[in-house]
Amino acid sequence: MDVIINQPAVTPPSVQKPAGPLALTVRNLSVFFGTNHVLKEVSLDIAARAVTAIIGPSGCGKSTFLRAINRMHELNPEARMEGEIRLFGDDIYSRKVEPVVVRRRVGMVFQKSNPFPTMSIVENVTVGLRLNGVHNRKLLAGRTEQSLRMAALWDEVKDRLHAPALSLSGGQQQRLCIARALAVEPEVLLMDEPASALDPLATSKIEDLIVQLKKDYTIVIVTHNMQQAARASDFTAFFYLGELVEFGPTTKIFTNPAQKRTEDYVTGRFG
Amino acid sequence: MTAPNHRWRKFKNSLMQTITFACAILVVTPLVLIFYHLLTEGFSSINLAFFTQLPKPVGEAGGGMANAIVGTFILLAQAAVMGVPVGVLGGVFLSEYGSFRLNRWIRFTADVLNGVPSITWGMVVYALVVVPMKGFSALAGGIVLGMMMIPLVMRTTEEVLQLVPGGYREAALALGIAKWRAILQIVVRTALKGIITGILLALARVAGETAPLLFTAFGNHFWTHKLTDPISAMPLQIFTYAISPYDDWHRQAWAGALVLVMFVLAINISVRFLTRDRFRRNI
């Protein structure tokens, strides 16, 4: 095993804490893949019922940060973490906590829409409940409508709930994936570049949806699209080379950043 | 923009095309020849009696292979009962669990087993089953075919599971679904057609095996009611008839070979149908 040397950040991050209730508190989070130190000592507070955007150039660790919040990074057998993440006060890396339990509380939507191809629209929405032992038909039907409505898909699919999920368009498939994640009623919804594979119209639908969803959910979204972060989020964190550079209200990050690196990135001078 | 050796290049191109085409034809030729020969020699001996009657003693005309046809299905059913669960679950392990080093060894072992001559399988099961049971039996025949199926099914299952995009596994786990459930009800379900294809191809492969059955199922000219008795199978019956000096029996052997090839062909065609829309909707 190689010795890993923690190099101090060039400048300490500029962090402006969100006011109001917090959903997640991240303290000194480091993630390693083998000897590769991907995320370095990140500390961040994520406000409840708000949208927090994570921005930064490719390879800056923003996806890893997102996946550490629902312990998905552990699918890589080389992964190791240090530090602490608390979800509404509960240490999600406590030895007593199973990753499965964390993932029921923290849902995720991926870059590439991935509805299960062997299942119908309604089966996709209810799969998380059914495979966790919920078989009450009334409850499943209610949750299907509720989730599809929240994902702004109900009106488009209510007459063909039993059609194959893959018969939907790309944008509809992604909203179906959002409905699928919402159906298990998570407390936090993670979105990993949810619109980067979609056309502008489908993208704007997803963005509207994000703004709608924050009434009920805490949302953390990774995006490469500056405009998207500016339009849809309340708080923005800028990551660079595995470090948190700046975190604060979105308007401040985009109009009056404290750090030169942030300003260069959001104005498109690098990245 | 014409290169000076343009014509020479064109010639080389068409030469290559011709050679590869000739080789492709060479691959198809044996199948055509086999079919032609089987049809001309065997078709005249196929009649209702062939499918419904027991073999007749030498010198008596007529008779059929009913017991061997049924025997083949009994042996294949036993082989499937043993080979499919172990093969499929082994393939699931290789694809979804284990470590790189361990899986490399298991995969290598399975590939070696797939290359073991079938007569060797027969000898192994003779020593492990026939000798302790003090007699040839349908059970021993089923066991040897089942053992041969396991590495075949395991490798094809692994391969089709690997074709399932990782995004489906991630999506399932991100919903808080336990790993075993995600694998069985999402990953395996997505690859189900491919897994069934692998099973059918393995069955088609062992359906024609003769050598391992010589040491185990042994053959029988009558109906068999117990798995502990010797049983006939089509390849065995064909073998017995083919090495006999009688013309009647030779004709029966040709007819049997034709039916067996048709059976294997039918499996292959049904596989084609199963996999036809595989790349349109599912993987």
Note down, in words, how this protein is organized.
The complex is a heterodimer of chains A (271) and B (283). Chain A has 271 residues and is of the alpha/beta class. Helices cover 34% and strands 25% of the residues of chain A. Chain A has ten helices and eleven strands. In chain A, the strands form two sheets. Chain A has a seven-stranded mixed β-sheet, sandwiched between helices. In chain A, strand 2 and strand 3 (36-47) form a beta hairpin. In chain A, helix 3 (121-130) runs parallel beside helix 6 (170-183). Chain A is globular. Chain A starts with 13 loop residues before the first strand and ends in a 5-residue tail after the last helix. By secondary structure, chain B is mainly α. The longest helix of chain B is centred in the N-terminal third of the chain and has 37 residues, at 6-42. The model of chain B is unreliable at 278-283 (pLDDT under 50). The interface between A and B is medium-sized, with 28 and 24 residues.
Features:
A: four-stranded antiparallel β-sheet, 34% helix, 25% strand, globular, B: 283 residues, mainly alpha, 12 helices, 74% helix, 0% strand
Q: How are the SSEs placed, and which strands pair?
A:
The complex is a heterodimer of chains A (271) and B (283).
Chain A: E1 14-15, E2 22-33, E3 36-47, E4 51-55, H1 62-69, E5 79-87, E6 90-91, H2 99-105, E7 106-109, H3 121-130, H4 137-150, H5 154-157, H6 170-183, E8 188-192, H7 200-213, E9 218-222, H8 226-232, E10 235-240, E11 243-249, H9 250-255, H10 260-266
Parallel strand pairs in A: 1-11, 4-9, 4-10, 7-8, 8-9
Antiparallel strand pairs in A: 2-3, 2-5, 5-6, 10-11
Helix pairs in contact in A: 3-4, 3-6, 4-6, 6-7
Chain B: H1 6-42, H2 48-52, H3 66-96, H4 100-115, H5 118-133, H6 138-163, H7 166-174, H8 179-190, H9 192-207, H10 211-214, H11 234-242, H12 247-275
Helix pairs in contact in B: 1-12, 3-6, 3-9, 3-11, 4-6, 5-6, 6-9, 7-8, 9-12, 11-12
